[in-house]
Specification:
The structure holds 2 protein chains of 2 kinds. Chain A is mostly helical. Chain A has 10 helices and 4 strands.
Chain lengths: 281, 266
């Protein structure tokens, strides 16, 4: 409900600017800073909605929203694989770092540094794996490279959040498990993981959005077909003649991001259903 | 066979380092089965350290500890004792009965047997209708009762408690003390109980071990004889006040400064 109101307000702000803003932009101290408000640069919101019902190209059959939904679905699947991969790697690294002090000291700086590498610099490298890597007869496809790039962004919050979570188990509870002579593994599954859940869930939310960003950026920078990233790119190129087209793709990207986020919220509700509520005593 | 034998134990933290601490020196203590023994003393006297040595959560620097006639390490592996801390320390994500079942799970008991024992323990601590509740739905006193049920779930012969009622209000505290005595009488459990409350030590204990700090030593062991049946009237009996007085005097013998900081007269 609130979300719909917010959406409406954003649309209002957009239209308001179109009324107030100068049509061919403006500059402050010689630098162009004020965006153009012309129909080509900022189409009317109702034109964008209308465009959703028209076909992708003149003479096509399906309305563009069906086509975009298809692209989004393709990208959604890649993002989901990337997310799962990223979570697996992130949790694995966190466990390793929680288990061995030297692993934490050795790995954590690299993990942080990994996030300073720009994804678009990395993308061509990873994409070039296709055709070169052959795992027991399974030839590395290009979409797998896209998933790896998404996982590369997604693993980071999971690794950091899970590590924090695994360390959040209270000292008294750890002592209790010690008094039962419980092994490290049993303490991990009976105490550390459950105690980490409130830290892992927000990390998952971050990872979900990052994996969508990762897939879209990787699609654009590698030019892989079939996904929403490529659609954004090619619709953008058509924007001179058809300025509302690209917004169909943008809406598609937003919708798929929300879908993945919704999936994580569902996991959140399932995992946290028996936890103390914040307003409970 | 004695329940606990602490044999010439010393404990030094950070051996051979500038920040080394002599926590305990030449501790000699024998506890018989069924006894209730309190450890009392100002902060820093090593009473919690002594409890952790008996629990084998830390190793002595010198000397050895026997629990149930075996080395403390073996006793821990065999889960010969249960433990309760100042914070109930229940797992938020487990229901009350699942919390009580935790030590039994680690022992590899099957589900039906665990359920039955958890129910039995809940009856013992008078919370039978709260099995399916989550810990955060319970009051502090009730949580502490669940923690005691968890500590006793495997029917250990020995119960180690570190200021278990320290975080409770006075009324709940007295109530819990009476219940703990009933439970121990019913199960025949030996208890080692760390506290900094003189009346609590006097009311609960057969013997009170008075300790002094830097390094932690046993200065005196006081026998308390309030009879087998303690009840609310005991708290007003002369013999109770006599015990409090003798414990207080023993504590006063210890360095003045430390006493003022660490012991209250509740």
């Amino acid at each position: 409900m609130l979300f719909c109101i917010a959406l409406f307000l954003v649309a209002c702000a957009w239209e308001l600017y179109k009324v107030v803003g100068p049509d061919d932009g403006g500059s402050v101290f010689g630098i162009t800073m004020i965006p153009k408000a012309s129909n080509r640069a900022m189409p009317h919101t109702w034109d964008m909605v209308q465009r959703l019902g028209q076909p992708e190209n003149r003479g096509g059959d399906d309305p563009i929203w069906v086509t975009v939904a298809g692209y989004s679905w393709y990208t959604f699947r890649l993002a989901l694989v990337g997310l799962v991969l990223g979570v697996a790697v992130g949790v694995g690294l966190a466990v390793l770092m929680a288990r061995f002090r030297f692993a934490e000291r050795g790995l954590l700086p690299w993990i942080i540094m990994s996030q300073t590498v720009p994804l678009i610099a990395l993308a061509p490298q990873v994409v070039s794996w296709s055709g070169r890597i052959d795992i027991f007869g399974w030839e590395w496809p290009r979409w797998a490279s896209v998933c790896v790039l998404a996982a590369f962004l997604a693993f980071f919050p999971v690794a950091v959040g899970t590590l924090r979570g695994l360390k959040s188990a209270p000292a008294a509870s750890l002592e209790l498990m010690d008094s039962y002579a419980a092994s490290w593994n049993r303490t991990l599954f009976k105490l550390r993981f459950p105690a980490a859940v409130p830290h892992i869930v927000p990390a998952l939310k971050l990872a979900a959005t990052l994996s969508v960003v990762g897939v879209v950026v990787a699609e654009i920078s590698t030019g892989i077909r079939g996904g929403i990233g490529r659609a954004v790119l090619s619709y953008q190129q058509a924007s001179t003649g058809d300025p509302t087209k690209v917004y169909a793709a943008v809406l598609g990207a937003a919708a798929l991001g929300l879908m993945l986020f919704g999936l994580v919220v569902l996991i959140d509700v399932l995992l946290m259903r028996n936890r103390p509520q914040e307003n409970a005593a | 066979m004695s329940a606990v034998i602490v044999n010439q134990v010393s404990k030094v933290f950070n051996v051979d380092k500038p920040n080394h601490v002599d926590a305990l020196a030449e501790i000699e203590l024998v506890i018989e089965p069924g006894e209730f023994v309190s450890l009392i003393g100002p902060s820093g006297c090593g009473k919690s350290t002594l409890l952790r040595l008996i629990a084998n959560l830390i190793e002595p620097t010198v000397g050895n500890v026997l629990v149930n006639g075996k080395p403390a390490a073996q006793a821990r592996l065999d889960q010969d004792y249960g433990m309760a801390f100042q914070q109930a320390g229940l797992f938020d994500w487990r229901s009350v009965e699942k919390n009580i079942e935790l030590p039994l799970e680690l022992k590899g008991w099957d589900k039906a047997r665990r359920r039955a024992r958890a129910q039995e323990m809940l009856e013992l601590v008078k919370l039978p209708e709260f099995a399916r509740h989550m810990p955060w739905q319970l009051s502090g006193g009730m949580q502490q009762r669940v923690a005691i049920a968890r500590a006793l779930a495997a029917h250990p012969p020995l119960l180690l408690m570190d200021e278990p009622f320290g975080a409770l209000d006075e009324m709940t505290r007295e109530h819990m003390q009476a219940e703990l005595l009933q439970i121990c009488a019913a199960t025949g459990t030996t208890v080692v109980f760390v506290t900094h409350s003189i009346p609590e030590a006097a009311y609960l204990s057969d013997r009170v071990v008075v300790m002094s700090p830097r390094p932690g030593r046993i200065t005196e062991i006081i026998d308390v004889d309030l009879g087998a049946k303690r009840n609310e009237d005991t708290r007003e009996a002369d013999v109770f006040y006599d015990s409090i007085t003798s414990i207080r005097e023993a504590l006063r013998g210890i360095e003045h400064a430390a006493v003022r900081g660490g012991v209250d007269d509740r």
